[in-house]
Amino acid sequence: MKAEECKLSSVFADSKTYEIPNYQRPYSWLESHTQDLINDTIEAFENSEKEYFIGSVITIEKEKDHRFEITDGQQRLTTLIIILAKLRDLITAADAKLALQGRIMPINALTGASEKPRLHVREQDRIFFIEHILAGNPVTDLIDMSVTQRRFLTNSKTAEGLFEKFNERTLCLYANFLLENVYVVFVKTENFQSAYRLFNVLNARGMSLSNADLIKNKLFDITAEDTNHDIIKDRWNDLEELISIPSMDAYFSHYRTSIKGEKQQFDLNKEYERYLDNFEGNSIEFLDQLISSARKYNRIIKTDFDDPYIKRVLSSLHKVSHDEWIPPLLCFMNRNTNNNDLKVFIKYLDKITYQNWIRRLGKTQRNTVYYNVIGLINKGSSVVDIIAKIKEYKNNEEFTNFISGDIYGAQYASAVLLRIEQELQDISVTKSYNGNISIEHVLPQKLSDIYWKERFTDTDHKNLIHKLGNLTLLSGRKNSAAQNYDFDRKRDIYNSKNKKVSFDLTKEVCDTLDWTKDVVEARHIKLVNIATEIWNIN
Question: Do 237 and 321 lie in a common domain?
Answer without folding.
Answer: no
